[in-house]
Amino acid sequence: MNIESLIREGVLNAVKALYGTEVDVDTIQIQMTRKEFEGDLTVVVFPFTRMSKKGPEQTGTDIGEYLIANVPSISKYNTVKGFLNLVISSEYWSDLLNIILNEKDFGIIQKDENSPLVMIEYSSPNTNKPLHLGHIRNNLLGFSIAEILKGTGKQVIKTNIVNDRGIHICKSMYAWQREGKNETPESVGKKGDHLVGDYYVKFDKLFKKEVADLMATGLSKEEAENAAPSINAAREMLRRWEANDPEIRNLWKTMNEWVYAGFDVTYKKLGVDFDKIYYESDTYSVGREEVLRGLELGVFERNDDGSVWANLENEGLDKKILLRSDGTSVYMTQDIGTAKLRYEEFPIDHMVYVVGNEQIYHFQVLSILLDKLGYKWGKSLYHFSYGMVELPQGKMKSREGTVVDADDLIEEMVEVARNTSNELGKLDGYSEEEKSEIHRMIALGALKYFILKVDPKKTMMFNPEESIDFNGNTGPFIQYTYARIKSVLRKASDAGIVWNSKTNNSMLGTKEIELIKKVSVFPEVVAEAASTYSPALIANYCYDLVKEFNQFYHDFTILGETDAEKKFFRLQITEVTGRIIKTGMGLLGIECPERM
């Protein structure tokens, strides 16, 4: 039983014994003791004054005396107004440390056959462009949320829906057909996703020129955009694709394969993966059948031009198009089909979509439409909405080619890590191969931590140089502390010191207790991060833990301690701290080098 549970039980018994009243456990409020007062945990006394018929300070004294007499883990107390501050005994903390030391996966719950199944969708790229900085935040959030949920005992399926069809794909295809001169990734020495993305940008430039030329003839902007030859060619290409035209389908398949090969390289660099990948080209037809079924049921309506719509005005929303007048599908159609296929294939208890906050309306509508189509799980879909990533120069735009490419960013981060390490001389004496691997870990750790430490709901500004600082709230700072811990433990092991046996030192100092307290709350942090889908809680906990350890490391000698039992305790504290750092960072998808 943890200390909070012991205190709750003790207070329940105290109120019954002292005042003859049974109270609900929810009335017992426990919080961390404020730093200006002596104590570890504080009980709010005010709810019990009506039972004691006494003032808050006397009530606190009554309960404090009872707890001292009946709860061995409480060594002292003091009452400040209506707050009972409790000091937890050194023996409790030393026993707790021994428990944590023997739990190799402390804070992590293992799944079993009865664990709920959660499906997490993230990434969701389009095959008309490479992954960029915005995709990086999406992938890192999705992967980390999946790992955190696993850490709370859930069964998790990581899934991706690749948007591999639609007008945006046809734009790249048309531009390549018009200007490509049979270029391939091999012939130009470029990743396939980058090559296809180049043609998407070329299409946009061509389209804008055509619109400008048409507007010069007197057409309005809207008229010019609808009359532009390039956009009409792309629309015709999409119509032919949906009609299974072999020429268009073959070109589409070839260019998509270029992109998939490029995506795989980027995913591997980022260290993210998927258990199941769906493709819009497979799911959109299922969605279209569902829309037509909804039309027959009277759930949806057809306009005079042949397009199909959902009228959501009764739900406080507007009308949503589901099929265009030419019969082609939209994103919503595909998402309906994908959801149907997923629930048919897996016994999903909870479905989480990791998608940016600009799609809040889309997922509101999707949930309502699935419910209208008779799927009882429709209303339980959860859209994990996160903020965008911005740069000092503003928002990124794929069509204009002003995005920060994911591959380029990763390479830049590795270069910054290399330069920073060389300046600090931290890797002197390492082989080039060892240096390269550590540079990679530092770079990815810096990138991932900088993104994940921010509240997911917030828009964030990304700064590569700031992210890789070896001081402050950064990934490299935490990684370096972990490497320092491993160095201490290696030296102890080389000296033949054995510290994993149970000891009974009750003379722990304040700093040691603070570190044990910080370690002990890790399970609660993981549970809260899972319930709120917030990797930021794990990230900032790791930083706080590292700060606490570094203060301990600065104030106390470990290997030089002459009292053997104190030395063992400090090594135990050092070991469990390192273990929690590695576990916590692992939940963020971040590797921790053993040497650095």
Structural summary, described in words:
By secondary structure, the protein is an alpha/beta fold. The protein folds into three domains: 3-88, Gyrase A, domain 2; 122-390, Rossmann fold (3-Layer(aba) Sandwich); 406-587, Isoleucyl-tRNA Synthetase, Domain 1 (Orthogonal Bundle), CATH 1.10.730.10. Helix content is 56%, strand content 11%. The chain has helices spanning 3-19, 49-52, 56-70, 90-102, 133-151, 167-179, 185-188, 192-216, 221-227, 229-242, 246-270, 280-297, 331-345, 360-372, 406-424, 432-452, 464-467, 475-494, 510-520, 522-532, 535-555, 564-587; strands spanning 30-32, 41-44, 74-80, 83-88, 117-121, 155-162, 276-279, 301-302, 308-311, 319-323, 350-356, 382-386, 389-390, 460-461. The strands form four sheets. Strands 7-6-5-11-12 form a five-stranded parallel beta sheet, sandwiched between helices. A four-stranded antiparallel beta sheet has the order 1-2-4-3. The radius of gyration is 30 Å and the shape is globular.
